[in-house]
Every structure is written in C-alpha cells, then in structure tokens.
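haha ok so turns out i had the wrong file open the whole time. this is the CORRECT one, sorry everyone. sequence first:
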Amino acid sequence: MSPVLLIHGLFGSLSDPVILGAFGATRVFAPDLIGYGAHRDCAPEGWTLEDQADHAAAWLRGRRDGPVHVVGHSVGGAVAQPARTPLRELQRPSFIPRMGIRRMVDTVNE
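then structure:
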C-alpha cells in the first residue's frame, strides 16, 4: 500500500503514536501545519489554505518522492484540496471529516 499523508484540522497534530499505530505497517506522514506544533510560532498574518497546502507539499517532498494517499481530517480536508495542485504525485485524496481514526484507517485501506 502507498504511504499516507495525514493533514490535521484545527485541533492539531495527527502524529500521536496511537493514531500512527492504527495504520499498522503502512508508512504515515503527519506534518504540523503552519501555526501548530513545531511551526507554532511561524504563523504569518493572513495565511491561506493554499499556504498550508504549499507547506505540506514542501514538507512531504523533503521526505517522500513517490505517490501517497492524502487524508484530510476536518479543516485538513480543505487544506488537502489545494494540496493536489502543488503535489501532482499525490493520489487518491480522501476527505474524512468527523470520523474516528479507525474509520480513517479503514477508508485508506479500501
């Protein structure tokens, strides 16, 4: 299975070991968006969803050069939508708002 790029929503990171562990042997990438986690102090005034998508794309390019499944949770789904442009190598975007991690994993594995 192709690796998975998780794009979190307003409540923050999806890089918790419990979340990542639910994907089993599948490689999962879970960057912090601008204004969250490691980038908490980097939030410029007036950033856009496209800025977040460009940030996620640049972060992923530094770690992966092949296709990934894109899973955007909540607002992450809105970020994932423009991410398809800067990351043409992405495949099978999935937008899964308001679902638990188990449903997210099941959807990616379908």
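The domain at 4-109 is CATH 3.40.50.1820 (Rossmann fold).
again sry for the mixup
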